[in-house]
Amino acid sequence: MPPRKRITMHDHAAEASLFKRRALFTFACVVILLSILLANLYHLQIISYKDYATRSNDNRIRVVPVAPSRGLIYDRHGKLLAENRPFFSLELIPEKVKDIPKILKELSQIIPITADEQQDFIASLKHHRRFKPLTLKNRLTEEQVALFSVNQHKFPGVAVVAGLKRHYLYNGLITHALGYVGRINDRDQARLRRSEQWKNYAATKDIGKLGIEKFYESLLHGKPGHLEEEVNNRGRTIRTLKSVAPQPGQDIYLTLDLDLQRKAMELLNGRRGSVVAIDPRDGGILALASSPTYDPNLFVHGISSKAYNKLLNSKSRPLINRATQGQYAPASTVKPHLALLGLDEKIITTKTRIWDPGFWQIPGVARKYRDWKRWGHGWVDVRDALIHSCDTFFYDLAYNTGVNKIAQFMEPFGFGKRTGIDIFEESAGIMPSKDWKRLRYNQPWYIGDTISVGIGQGYWTTTPLQLANAAAILANKGRRFTPHLLKSIKNSTSKIDTPIDELAPIELNDPQNWNIVNEAMRDTAHKKRFKDSPYTAAMKTGTAQVISVAQNTRYDADAIAEHFRDNALTIAYAPFENPRIVVAVVLENAGWGGANAGPVAKALLDEYMLRDTLEPLQ
Amino acid sequence: MSSQNHDPNIWQRLHLDLPLLLGILSLMLFGLFVIYSAGGEDLALLERQLVRMGLSLAIMFIVAQINPEVFRRWAFPIYLAGIALLLGVHFFGEINKGAQRWLNLGFMEFQPSELIKLAFPITMAWYISKYPLPPKKRYLAGAGVLLLIPTLLIAKQPDLGTSILVAASGIFVLFLSGMSWAIVGTFVGGILAMLPVLWFFLMHDYQKTRVLTLLDPEKDPLGAGYHIIQSKIAIGSGGPWGKGWLDGTQSQLEFLPERHTDFIFAVIGEEFGLIGSALLLIMYLFVIGRGLVIASQAQTSFARLLAGSITLTFFVYIFVNIGMVSGLLPVVGVPLPLISYGGTSMLTLMTGFGILMSIHTHRRFVDR
Question: Could you say which residues from 196 to 255 on chain A have a Cβ atom under 8 Å away from some Cβ of chain B?
């Protein structure tokens, strides 16, 4: 058979040796190929080891930033103004709950969770990792927390989780000074990135938006810590490898006096207006009140757009900080400064007397500038002119001085420029001059403009803070400080006072002139308002005619009548010999200054001075 | 008992080859440790693998008792049956993970390609050894037909890994039979020439993606490149000494996919480092070497070719798997032999080792 024949043709020895050669060859190939594998492993595990080790750690180690707790804010006596309050939310870990709808139903018998909320929650489960807690309800009351805690054993996988939120203890009382924090928005984020602060905010949700909270954000915020966690491929935390505690923000003490602030707000009583009180010895602001106000806590938890629009569109403009942004004609409250100018520039002397028939005329011009007293004050010297607030005297003085000299003299008193208070919300006011008018309106200056400026009206506007500051300089006889709110910063063990920013004092040609003006103010105070006061005081009131309101408010037909009423102003300080407190009061459209703003100033000084005598400050 | 110790032929009588058995057992033991770690210390998983190993060892033992002549006689009919079953899969098979590989026999699912993996080299060895060696060209043509039918059928399923293994087992038979170098050269050249054809006409999109991914895994780090990137990270981060048993973060934290099956080598690289990987390669080299020794000592061409093919196919498993896991070769579904968790391939491999042992221990009986 052919097959058999072929088999017989096999050469066994030759075939065996051929096979051996081939087998040897293939074995050599196997060794070479295995060496290639080994060489590749050498490349991966030895040469590129560091690279892959790093990538392996990047895979498994997640760095979780931990937010620092925000520094607390106290008043000058250590009374807490802003704190961080724990807030509780109810969270559920989906994978630990077998029947979520059933649990929700049972939970709703303890804590009100509406059917809608339940449905929303179940819907949101789909887009959520099963092992990560999901918030079921925010802002639980303490009662709800207690109620849940008692029943916790019935709800495995559900837990109350605590966080910290800013809380302002006195709601609207100090809003305009403290400001508030709010959720970090895109603009905050961009700003933080620019200042290379963003990495410090990795875990932080809120940032100072206004007032002290914004100005001292860098002090209050602190430094974040972090946790290094080992995670698996789905991001589940397996264990914590390392933990670096955050460094809390620094606690700060303000110059504010809580009781005085409260008194100021009580006196304002919701009326449109502002009160500023300054300690003239160091420029520390004792009270910074702006009314009407609003509750800053609304913004911490995210204000509803409805509530926000209501604040924004309110005719009384609660969002404006009137104390630092409200611009008012100072009216007669700057007459002491004008008198000082006249005396020191020798435009007048204490002997200078003029006849006031109830009006004043520019020489050779028929137009009459009226005094507030229609029948006039008769013969007045500078002291009388201050005590009776004689307009005619100051018309004449301004006419003889000229506006540029007035502007030049008033500049070191802080008129027409920002005081530099440590909040960002501040307006400069206007100290008019010929150049200013040309730049602002491209119009020449008229003599009549100067006459208005002579009684603190016309183009001249100031903020209540500027008024208080200028009054403090007067009371201080030229010593000047930058008004400020920050008193000290708490260190780990002690309080460190922030340095006082004292400016170069105002040097008069004759320092005696300070006394003439201040004594006239003292006599003004004690003539009537402070007649029976147990302490000495000085004051000057003012009544400003209103053409438009402080801010560029739209005219509203219903509001016009009220908005045309005069603004009432007062500056006052006490004690006369060694002033410790200076106040400025502005009441919008309240009418006569002496009758309306005066009692407010008096009540504030009483609060401060009389409390002092009972329980003196050190 | 004592008589066994004194009798040098006890292993001969049991039809077992001690060096090969020790090589296999040490690889299996190593595999158990790695699976325990890779499977997240799952004892049930380990138990299943142990049962599978026991079963495979039993089958190896049974196969070793069978005279190679029996395989030779039955090879072609089994091959034909295998082809028939492959066609059956083609028309009636179940689709699993997008590939048609499984035949549902009612009581169990069965992969006919595994049967072909065994039957085909036997058939090839039978066919080639019928004629004097080195084979004449006309027989090579017949061998080519025998090779192409199952290879293409399996590639069509599609199961690139198995079709490579099947084709390789046939090619090894041809090469070992002494096929002239000219033909080998022509053949290699032909394969190279076929590559573009393969790329443009035969390969599925997912297979092309695998090749492209190999060239640049970082291009699609979360998609196709994920497996390769994570496995290279695992191996590379193992460094020279490894992170230690049970301490591989890539595997323990589940960044590594398929870590107890096809990608188990990455766990070895990560936990045991270059030292562990090299040790594994040496163990494999030992088994391959022993297989080739058995082949060389076999007394018929059929036995030689078959033993050589089985041994070298075992090497192909190793090379393709480790090459894939360490980023040298594209991802193809080939397990790491004797280590990867999983049944079918281990049964097939151990049957092959049974054949090796049978060849080695039946020599005298064949000869006389």
Answer: 230-234, 238
